[in-house]
Design a protein that fits this description.
mainly alpha, 11 helices
């Protein structure tokens, strides 16, 4: 399991839906083109640093995206990559740590000083999906109250609508993400999360 392979799959999924993403972008009509370009750059960047630790690969990719692509989506993903680099400091890339990558890329923010009574809704959902142990879940930082409410509501609405566990989880994550605030970014965010989740599930089977 390596970042280059993961981002190559993400890029392939975005390319497959490139036309649909462009159509969903009511402002510039080029969101699909932009996202494919961004992930091609990300995949190339991590490939160049494949001999380095995961956090260094992510940090380098963040810098390259920030330098080479000027757009709102690129800014969000550059920040997400930088956050992921911090999350993966001293951590290996494994099926049960890919949730960190998903949450970081979608810019799902966590409180610096979480309260003990806050439930780790997203952490629990993600952990259940990829088989993470409950003890590990308890040690994770918890999301803020407002984000938990939004995420929890999105999760249960998706479940009632007949969505799969993966779709419900992704809807919950997007509810706590700035990428969920517009139709086209929500679509691309879902594609990104789905691609990475597929790696998490296949690697845990």
């Amino acid at each position: 399991m390596d970042l280059s392979s993961i981002f190559k799959t993400v890029s392939a999924q975005l390319t497959e839906q490139q036309t649909a993403l462009n159509a969903a972008d009511e402002y510039n009509h080029d969101h699909g083109d932009n996202m494919v370009k961004i992930f091609d750059v990300i995949q190339s960047a991590v490939s160049k640093k494949s001999d380095k630790p995961v956090d260094e690969q992510l940090s380098y990719a963040s810098q390259v995206v920030e330098k080479e692509i000027q757009s709102g989506s690129a800014k969000l993903l550059s920040q997400g990559l930088a956050d992921a680099a911090l999350s993966f400091a001293g951590t290996d890339l494994q099926p049960d740590t890919l949730g960190l990558l998903v949450k970081s890329l979608l810019n799902v923010k966590e409180e610096k000083e979480p309260k003990k009574e806050q439930g780790g809704v997203l952490g629990s959902l993600l952990s259940g999906l990829i088989g993470k142990k409950e003890e590990a879940v308890e040690e994770e930082k918890k999301l803020g109250v407002n984000e938990l409410l939004l995420a929890g509501m999105a999760y249960f609405q998706a479940k009632q609508g007949g969505s799969s566990d993966v779709e419900a989880l992704i809807n919950a994550l997007l509810a706590a993400s700035p990428m969920g605030e517009s139709k086209h970014r929500s679509m691309s965010g879902s594609l990104i999360a789905n691609a990475i989740m597929s790696f998490a599930k296949s690697g845990n089977e």
